[in-house]
Design brief:
about 250 residues; alpha+beta; Thrombin, subunit H; 2 domains; 6-stranded antiparallel barrel; 6-stranded antiparallel β-barrel; globular
């Protein structure tokens, strides 16, 4: 019995080791497709403001992020434009973009960028990944304070669970929210730690690099201000099947 248990543990140890050994190769493949999402204000100081993360799909001119990342209206008096930030470090470049599809229900948005195509990521099938699957996501957890440097976090699919919309006051509950609570959709719950700037990051299978979801929220256990210094370690992601629905509805090839 003891020998069988030892062999079982050794098998899973080396299985996990091989998976994580591939992570460096996967991240190297993923990073050129990871972008920042924000606003370009030609008259502002600073001119560029980063609001979240995103990733390139399709023909290299479409970028996926969260709907809440692009949620605020632009200030036309300041000549503001939607922007996608590409490259890395302090030499990153700005690409102007326009919103071509968005879903408030699934917190997803698709932008089309100007200029030459960028390397694109492949989307996984509509099938849910199994709980326990090793996953990772790459984005900009604390924005661009030190420049545009993508950061990777890894973990597992901890659960496939109905989406929740936490509120601190019953007065915040709307008719739309009540409808969602009656018919919730399933999302991935992860044991990996994400931060506000990770919103819109692609969640990908650690071995294949295929996108299986989009990071969209973090469970906040104290205050929003404490989410960086005292993270809960619980993160949620929208499964890729809902992104596929949005792309199909708007005739965007991927």
């Amino acid at each position: 019995m003891k020998k069988t248990l030892t062999l079982f543990l050794l098998f899973h140890y080396f299985l996990g080791f091989n998976v994580f050994a591939n992570l460096a190769d996967t991240v190297e493949k993923i990073k050129p497709s990871v972008v920042g999402i924000g606003v370009y204000t030609p008259t502002g100081r600073p001119k560029n403001t980063l609001h979240g993360s995103g990733f390139v799909i399709g023909n290299g001119q479409y970028v996926v992020t969260n709907d809440h990342v692009i949620g605020k209206d632009l200030d036309e008096t300041l000549l503001q434009k939607r922007a996608v930030f590409i490259g890395s470090g302090k030499s990153s470049k700005v690409r102007l973009a326009e919103v071509v599809a968005r879903s408030d229900m699934y917190d997803l948005a698709v932008l089309k960028i100007e200029g030459a195509p960028l390397p694109a990521l492949a989307l996984a099938t509509d099938k849910f990944e199994r709980e326990g699957t090793y996953v990772a996501f790459t984005g900009f957890p604390i924005g661009s304070v030190l420049g545009l440097y993508p950061v990777t976090h890894r973990g597992i699919v901890a659960s496939i669970t109905p989406t929740i919309i936490p509120v601190s006051d019953s007065r915040q509950i709307s008719i739309k929210m009540l409808k969602r609570l009656r018919d919730p959709y399933l999302v991935y719950q992860l044991d990996a730690t994400a931060y506000p700037g990770n919103s819109g990051s692609g969640l990908y299978n650690l071995e294949t690099g295929e996108v299986i979801g989009v990071i969209n929220k973090v469970f906040v256990q104290a205050t929003k201000e404490a989410v960086i210094s005292n993270p809960s370690g619980i993160t949620y992601a929208i499964p890729v099947k809902y992104l596929r629905e949005l792309l199909d509805d708007n005739q965007i090839s991927y």
